[in-house]
Design a protein that fits this description.
mainly beta, Jelly Rolls, 1 helix, 43 strands, 11-stranded mixed beta sheet, about 0% helix, about 625 residues
Length: about 625
């Protein structure tokens, strides 16, 4: 098999048997102002002690990472006696661990409040709600990893409240009777059968942080409260609630928290109720609602082809792009209907044939459930898909996938929205519209830039990252080796026979994109090195890198390594010269300069090549 056909097998195996939808004409699209989730602030490492704490301000969201091995992050703020603190970690988007511990400390390091697993929306996140500040001074929020794998990334939401909150006004037992949440905070009392509804005005791209502090009417009694946000889903009838039906209440630090980013402007509702009413369900609460306004950026929205999603088939909907600009930020909007939503696996395919998963097997698992999706997939949305309702929301791509990998890449070429229906069950679907949203350098805006906040929102501030991540000491040893006889392409250690060890240093936790190139002989034609042909045979020789495959790793700060077998899929790399290139993508959205190393794959050993005994 020649090298060209071998590479085609590698690149196209993921879409074998796919059906290509009719492609629209390639477009040069004008810039327009697009509302996207605001960029979070970032931690400033090192911040593992109080003296090096990262400042945080009320109404802020920070995206950071905990490295494996006991990393701790300190955040500092000033507070006055009597103020109330609401904070929450969101770990649902982590590609590593999910278990955080959140502490509130005073200036002397004394713990004021602490939580391990009371966070909502994802098991083992952390929530502190309504913690009272005892005296004026400096205070710290401390986030640590309760496990050993690290948490990368996590989001920390923080809100201070000072003024006495208003009390709910009854009747507010349904959405049509909702109290406006004008001041961002409200207190209330719950009794058996009671529901309390509150309304908020949100703009497309706004992110809301809801935090509910609970007080039981009876000592030692665990409340069974549920905090909900909506209305969402088909017909705008669903309330997205926490905790879920399988979660149990926490009687030590009873609180709930919910974060969500919306994709459409309008009136939204917050619901406070019980999951299950009982004779002892009497409790009071303090509800805080913080809105982080959307950022607005100059972007281009490229439409994809549309059409039927066929049962048990893979469909590719092309997105041809004529513009050639450098990407700083990317998002994907999708509007579709599908009778069994969980049948769908959807990814974005780049012109270089790299597939970035957007989601797999989310939503309703049987017919008769939620069938509509109107969502924008963006790295900086509040959460990945956690509910069966999938409209009108901004959502992170599934854990382990990031659209930030497209940063600094060119836009020109034919992209594709790949939709795979992975079950044969007579389901029916239709892609109504989809757009690839590509933004230039001015897309990296602080929270609230040009945005509009809902009532009661406090304008957050950010700590923009000061420098991009760096990769160094990138090496492949040995530099000449034979491909291993078996095994996956990447393993934890160097293979026992064949293959090599790849090592490098990363300045911070990051997602590293690695691209393997085969170095082939070419001919210099103008400024390009092209494939040799009869017509250019007299031109000057050059080295032509030809892409073989790309893959992604989630790396910690410091030394990283993996074993490389010299195999791709079920095949060995053909003998020849290769280059492995790496680029780090931090949770801040910034990227490193590329680093690379070359190596040579040797021909398989033969009897004549083995040393003879004498």
């Amino acid at each position: 098999m020649n090298r060209r056909k071998w590479r085609q097998l590698v690149v196209c195996a993921c879409i074998a048997g796919a059906t290509l939808a009719v492609s629209p004409a390639a477009l040069a699209v004008p810039l327009e102002t697009v509302a996207l989730p605001a960029l979070p602030g970032s931690e400033t490492e090192p911040n593992d002690v109080a003296a090096a704490a990262t400042p945080i301000t009320s109404g802020q969201r920070v995206r950071a990472s905990l490295a494996a091995g006991g990393d701790v992050d300190y955040y500092s703020f000033n507070a006055a006696a009597g103020e109330r603190i609401f904070a929450n970690t969101v770990t649902a988007g982590s590609a590593t661990g999910f278990d955080t511990v959140l502490k509130l400390l005073n200036g002397e390091g004394v713990t004021i409040a602490e939580d391990d697993d009371d966070g909502s929306q994802f098991a083992r996140a952390s929530s502190i709600a309504g913690a009272a500040i005892p005296a004026d001074g400096i205070y710290y929020l401390v986030v640590s990893d309760a496990g050993t794998t690290g948490v990368s990334p996590y989001d920390l939401y923080f809100q201070q409240r000072a003024a006495a909150p208003p009390v709910e006004l009854e009747p507010n037992n349904k959405s049509s009777e909702a109290n406006p949440l004008n001041d961002g905070e409200v207190t209330g009392a719950h009794s058996v059968g009671d529901q309390d509804w509150f309304s908020m005005q949100l703009q497309a791209g706004d992110t809301v942080f809801l935090s509910l502090a609970l007080a039981s009417a009876l000592p030692g009694e665990a409340s069974n409260a549920q905090l909900g946000f909506g209305l969402a889903g088909d017909g705008d009838k669903q309330v997205l609630g926490v905790p879920g039906e399988s979660e149990s209440p926490d009687s030590i630090a009873p609180s709930e928290a919910l974060t969500m980013t919306v994709s459409s402007s309008g009136t939204y509702y917050v619901k406070v109720a019980s999951r299950e009413d009982s004779l002892t369900e009497n409790w009071s609460y303090d509800l805080s609602a913080t809105v982080i306004p959307a950022g607005h950026a100059s972007c281009r929205a490229y439409p994809s082809a549309i059409g039927e999603i066929k049962d048990a088939k893979t469909m590719i909907f092309p997105i041809p792009i004529e513009d050639s600009v450098e990407i700083s930020r990317a998002a994907v909007s999708i509007s579709l209907v599908e009778s069994v939503m969980a049948d769908l696996d959807v990814s974005l395919r780049t012109p270089a044939a790299v597939e970035l998963p957007l989601f797999n097997d989310i939503g309703s698992t049987s017919s008769g459930g939620q069938t509509q999706m109107d969502a924008v997939f963006d790295d900086f949305a509040a959460v990945p898909p956690l509910y069966k309702a999938l409209r009108p929301l901004d959502l992170q791509p599934g854990a382990g996938s990031r659209l930030g990998l497209l940063a600094n890449q060119p836009s020109q070429g034919t992209w594709g929205l790949v939709i795979k229906d992975d079950q044969l069950n007579s389901s029916v679907g239709n892609l109504k519209s989809a757009h690839l949203i590509l933004c230039g350098p001015d897309a990296l805006l602080p929270p609230g830039s040009g945005g509009s906040s809902g009532k009661g929102a406090q304008q957050p501030q950010s700590n923009p990252p000061k420098s991009p991540p760096t990769l160094s000491s990138f090496a492949i040893a040995p530099g000449r080796f034979r491909a291993a006889k078996a095994g996956p392409m990447v393993i934890a250690k160097r293979p026992k026979a064949g293959g090599a060890l790849v090592t490098y240093q990363s300045s911070e936790p990051a997602q590293t994109n690695l691209v393997l190139f085969e170095l082939e002989e070419g001919r210099k034609v103008g400024k390009k090195c092209v494939r040799p042909t009869t017509s250019n045979s007299t031109k000057k020789p050059c080295v032509r890198p030809v892409k073989v495959i790309s893959f992604v790793r989630n790396d910690a700060a410091g030394r990283n390594q993996f074993g490389f077998t010299g195999r791709v899929g079920a095949r060995k790399l053909p003998p020849g010269e290769y280059r492995l290139q790496a680029r780090a993508y931090a949770t801040s959205g910034l990227t490193s300069a590329p680093v690379s190393a070359t190596f040579k794959v040797l021909p398989p050993a033969t009897k004549d090549s083995k040393p003879r005994r004498r």
